[in-house]
Amino acid sequence: MNSPAIAQNLDLTALNTEFEHRDALEIIAWAAEEFGDDLALSSSFGADSAVMLHLAVRVKPDIRVITLDTGFLFPETLAFRDDLARRLGLNLHIYRPVMPADAFLAEHGRMWRSNPDACCAFNKREPFDRAKRELGIRCWLTGIRREQSATRKHAAIAQRDNLGLLKLCPIARWTTKDVHYYLLENDLPYHPLRDQGFLSIGCQPEPGYCTVKVKPGDDPRSGRWAGFDKTECGLHTQDGGSGI
Ligand code: SF4
């Protein structure tokens, strides 16, 4: 297996300068050429996840797609995942927490109410890190966009993740309009709950927690962990402190 610290040897500043002038397909093609089968895509099968999935399989049809099933997802998300997997022929790798949802609830109670950071660390961060290690990933793609929230506004296209791996955000510069027209032009669907006002979609262990509808005009990510000083689950932070 290749060194997990691969990104340490890359000049991220130079890469980012270059990638700011490249389109999403060019960035993905560079990664496929550089990392081959050690390249993966992380997907939450959220509101507009079909865009990154479609772009990635256009470049590398057999790319490994890592997704988490925390046990607290909407049934619509699981159906959306399976539908897209069929349509796009996805090479899906589904990872789950060590403890199934029922056992987690029995042992820890409703941790998402009291300590959502710890809940995400257990149910998202650990299985995601395990996936990257087990699959020997050296670089992964994600669909983060700068328009999604204030905390993603300055997201670099090339980053190091918490394991020192290269993380790429090929559609970081895309606007909501860009996403909309790409889906339309390629006959791709939004997540079925988006029409109901869920603009960013993750777990919903119980109504009102972790994923709620977004008020008109607010950031799409404002519907995540409403009422908490938390905007990410740890998959998109280096220290794991705070989300797919
Ligand atoms: S999103 Fe909510 S239920 Fe899911 S892991 Fe994080 S805190 Fe727990």
Could you write a compact summary of the structure shown?
With 244 residues, this protein is of the alpha/beta class. It is built from 8 helices and 6 strands. It is 35% helix and 9% strand.
Description:
With 244 residues, the chain is α/β, with parallel strands linked by helices. The chain has a single domain, classed as HUPs (Rossmann fold, 3-Layer(aba) Sandwich), CATH 3.40.50. Helices cover 35% and strands 9% of the residues. It has eight helices and six strands. A six-stranded mixed β-sheet has the order 3-2-1-4-6-5. Helix 2 (24-35) packs across helix 3 (50-59). The longest helix is centred in the middle third of the chain and has 19 residues, at 116-134. It starts with 11 loop residues before the first helix and ends in a 59-residue tail after the last helix. Bound molecules: iron/sulfur cluster. Iron/sulfur cluster is lined by residues 70, 72, 112, 116, 119-120, 123-124, 202-203, 205, 210, 233.
Keywords:
binds iron/sulfur cluster; globular; alpha/beta; single chain; Rossmann fold; 244 residues
Topology, pairings included?
Elements: H1 12-19, H2 24-35, E1 39-42, H3 50-59, E2 64-68, H4 75-88, E3 91-95, H5 101-108, H6 111-114, H7 116-134, E4 139-141, E5 158-160, E6 166-168, H8 176-185
Parallel strand pairs: 1-2, 1-4, 2-3, 4-6
Antiparallel strand pairs: 5-6
